[in-house]
């Protein structure tokens, strides 16, 4: 399962071995009060039993969402709600275990009814829309037993860590201090290995932690050397990147997707590294097979857009757990313009060659920063997915299931949050 850094208006991604957390805040409405769980189980409405990892290509029947404990949602602690996929109906509300007072993120694991969550102390945010990201988080495994309608939280053997990069809230003080930040997390299919990406001024490191023992193995990539005389307002390095993690079904290979908003300064280019976790510790690139997205050159055109825009680039790539496919939201050939018009879509790539094999929902967007396509969840073979940002109208307020035949079916977001003085709505943090 994988999780990745969330920028301002992102959402969580969860593959059937992957869960990507991007942006997300609690929705504006406050849920009805259901009993909650910490280390003990909690009752709720009964549901179906959870399928085994990789057993089905269908969307799991329920998911987890970060949800405001009370109003106003943009400035209050958060619970985790477990919800019905088709209706967003709350099946169970889970509160943070003592001494923590809020959850900061939720990430899927590839198995229905199992998530990684981060719990932390609560203090009012430093600025509007900041839900306390600077606090240290304790990681837990949240397990939902659908047949009994109860849930439990089990501590994971990871020292508390700041999760700013995972939730898209890295600020100048953390960068200046070179703070170690959690940027991605994934639990192996058998639940015995927890993988994380941790960034710092020195670069980024993939860590694999034994569960429950806590033994750590690690592989690192160094940050690039900054240009002589560099005086930028921000330290570009790995803090300026997003990551995804996906455990392959062999439980030895860990796929790490990476993307940077500024390759020239960060030195991090868009690609997927397939890490052999049985290899000797040390160099991340030395122990990995790198796959870089590859697109045919765009035919020459004039004006704002060609008749059939050719895919040209990926944002954060997501590997499927069967090891055959890479999915990514991305851009297509677009003429130069100052209005924010862009051709976009979701691109399907070969995990062996990185070459484009198919396109999903190509369309155009204009004048909005939150309309870019994103993958929220994908089945083990990548043919079924939950996606957003794939239509031209109200793109980010639509959550859709794409079936293997390409048909789209809309399902409800659990809610949205409107932060004062922000122009756009923010989606809740969700994970399957």
UniProtKB/TrEMBL annotation:
**What are the alphabetically sorted keywords of the record?**
Signal
Residues annotated as signal peptide: 1-28
Q: What is this protein called?
A: Uncharacterized protein
Native organism: Trebonia kvetii
């Amino acid at each position: 399962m994988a999780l990745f850094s969330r920028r301002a208006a992102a959402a969580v991604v969860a593959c059937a071995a992957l869960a990507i957390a991007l942006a997300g805040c609690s929705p504006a409405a406050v849920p009805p009060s259901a009993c909650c769980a910490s280390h003990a189980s909690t009752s709720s409405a009964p549901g179906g039993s959870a399928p085994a990892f990789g057993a089905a290509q269908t969307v799991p029947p329920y998911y987890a969402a970060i949800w405001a404990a009370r109003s106003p949602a943009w400035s209050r602690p958060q619970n985790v709600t477990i919800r019905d996929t088709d209706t967003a109906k709350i099946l169970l509300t889970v509160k943070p275990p003592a001494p923590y007072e809020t959850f900061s993120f939720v990430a899927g694991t590839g198995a229905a009814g199992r998530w990684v969550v981060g719990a932390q102390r609560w203090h009012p945010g430093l600025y509007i829309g900041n839900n306390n990201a600077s606090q240290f988080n304790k990681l837990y495994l949240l397990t939902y037993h659908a047949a009994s309608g109860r849930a439990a939280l089990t501590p994971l053997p990871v020292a508390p860590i700041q999760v700013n990069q995972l939730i898209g809230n890295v600020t100048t003080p953390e960068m200046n201090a070179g703070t170690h930040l959690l940027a991605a997390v994934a639990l192996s299919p058998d639940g015995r290995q927890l993988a994380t990406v941790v960034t710092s001024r020195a670069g980024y490191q993939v860590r694999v932690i034994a569960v429950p023992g806590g033994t750590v193995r690690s592989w690192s990539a160094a940050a690039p050397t900054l240009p002589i005389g560099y005086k930028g307002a921000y330290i570009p390095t790995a803090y300026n990147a997003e990551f995804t993690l996906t455990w392959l079904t062999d439980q030895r290979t860990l796929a790490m997707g990476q993307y940077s908003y500024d390759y020239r300064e960060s030195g991090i280019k868009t690609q997927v590294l397939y890490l052999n976790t049985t290899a000797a510790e040390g160099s991340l690139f030395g122990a990995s097979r790198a796959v870089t997205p590859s697109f045919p050159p765009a035919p020459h055109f004039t004006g704002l857009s060609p008749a059939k825009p050719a895919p040209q680039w990926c944002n954060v790539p997501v590997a499927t757990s069967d090891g055959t496919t890479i999915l990514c939201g991305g851009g297509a050939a677009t003429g130069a313009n100052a209005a924010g018009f862009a051709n976009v879509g979701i691109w399907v790539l070969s995990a062996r060659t990185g070459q484009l094999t198919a396109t999903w929902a190509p369309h155009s967007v204009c004048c909005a920063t939150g309309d870019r396509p994103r993958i929220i969840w994908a089945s083990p073979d990548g043919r079924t997915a939950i996606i957003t940002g794939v239509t031209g109208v109200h793109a980010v307020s639509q959550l859709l299931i794409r079936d293997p035949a390409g048909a789209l079916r809309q399902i409800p977001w659990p809610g949205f949050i409107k932060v004062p003085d922000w122009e756009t709505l923010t989606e809740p943090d969700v994970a399957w």
